[in-house]
Amino acid sequence: MPSNIPRVKSPVYHVPVSTDLDDPRFTAFGLFAEAFTGLTNRFAAQFEEHRLSAVEFEVLMRLARSPGRRLRMTDLAGQTSLSTSGVTRVVDRMDRDGLVRREACPSDRRSSFAVITEAGVGRLDEVLPGHLELLQQWFIGQLSPAELDGMLGSLRKIRDAVNPCATAGTTEERPAA
Amino acid sequence: MPSNIPRVKSPVYHVPVSTDLDDPRFTAFGLFAEAFTGLTNRFAAQFEEHRLSAVEFEVLMRLARSPGRRLRMTDLAGQTSLSTSGVTRVVDRMDRDGLVRREACPSDRRSSFAVITEAGVGRLDEVLPGHLELLQQWFIGQLSPAELDGMLGSLRKIRDAVNPCATAGTTEERPAA
DNA sequence: GGTGTTTGTGTGACGGAGCAACTATATGCC
DNA sequence: GGCATATAGTTGCTCCGTCACACAAACACC
């Protein structure tokens, strides 16, 4: 309880800040951040029940949706928010745990693929229903169809502005640019 | 196997995944994530120009907006996405850098306050205008007033659902609950 | 075909953050 | 008052991810 802060005794003469600290734009982004981290925390809790971290889940997901259920390391890095060395290490761990294996690229001997294993598919299969439930419960289901629609439109605008290289991002490939 | 009749050209027979991997709800959240991380990356780049990390910026901001420009360590942890030990360490660093100082709590000798210093206020003052520009450029300005309004409404719904303890979150104090 | 450059990946060192354990203080209950 | 319990903060340990660098293979250009 901050009741013990001597409110009156010192009228606290602070050096002023030239920017308005209560500008609604700050709180707007704060809302964005709280909503996002709140969601990811909920999801992380469920991932953990299945012995997965959020990045591991994302890796499994991205691999499972890719043609041949495989992706070159660099491409995987591009699709996740990881550096290439980060991908190296995640794939190391997941390889050790049997969720993923490395496979040489026949056409470019520098490259290697990360391929999701049967065990990886199994694990994903195990997590997905619950994940979808959470997604529905805390995100989709909180909004009316119209609200959801508006939100997705706005998010897409922001995403396209801020992350132009991945215009088609999640599902499709990046444009020729 | 009638090897002379190549049934399909697809050589990869995968164990099926029972959940639809292309459920639009996945991509909806993917959009959310890409927009958010895109924004935070932009911001982080500017913070770095002023020798600040995102969490340090947030700490400065929270302290500057709090009565007496101070916050108990635990409260600071509650307002940020950090654990209490995380806060201890951030405050250590920022104290070392002169942006913040610790001050004993007179009424509870277990507690200590983190107080933003003049240098901290100065640093914040230095970052804020540019930060506000970025906020405007990549977030607020991307949306029409109506879109922004809708988005904030939706975000608030999600935030309130997912993070009920901080109903008034960013600016106000949590409710008595 | 050699040589320089670019690209794909892995590695060592480092820093940040969480958990669990610990200390010190406060509080409740008798 | 005296003890049990709860709370505030710090610290040791560990994991995870990045950066800078190393190395190998592909490519470009002459």
How are the secondary structure elements laid out?
The structure is a homodimer of 177-residue chains.
Chain A: H1 24-49, H2 54-64, E1 70-72, H3 73-79, H4 84-96, E2 100-104, E3 112-116, H5 118-138, H6 145-162
Antiparallel strand pairs in A: 1-3, 2-3
Chain A binds a DNA duplex (30 and 30 nucleotides) through helix 4.
Question: Mind explaining what this structure looks like?
Answer:
2 copies of one chain form a homodimer. The radius of gyration of chain A is 22 Å and the shape is globular. Chain A has helices at residues 24-49, 54-64, 73-79, 84-96, 118-138, 145-162; strands at residues 70-72, 100-104, 112-116. In chain A, strands 1-3-2 form a 3-stranded antiparallel beta sheet. With 177 residues, chain A is mainly alpha-helical. In chain A, helix 1 (24-49) crosses helix 5 (118-138) and helix 3 (73-79) crosses helix 4 (84-96). The longest helix of chain A is centred in the N-terminal third of the chain and has 26 residues, at 24-49. Chain A is built from 6 helices and 3 strands. Chains A and B meet through helix 1, helix 5 and helix 6 of A and helix 1, helix 2, helix 5 and helix 6 of B. Chain A binds a DNA duplex (30 and 30 nucleotides) through residues 53, 55, 72-74, 82-90, 92-93, 105, 108-112. Chains A, B: It comes from Paractinoplanes lichenicola. Chains A, B: Residues 22-160 form the HTH marR-type domain. Chains A, B: InterPro entries: HTH_MarR-typ, MarR/SlyA-like, WH-like_DNA-bd_sf, WH_DNA-bd_sf. Chains A, B: This is MarR family transcriptional regulator.
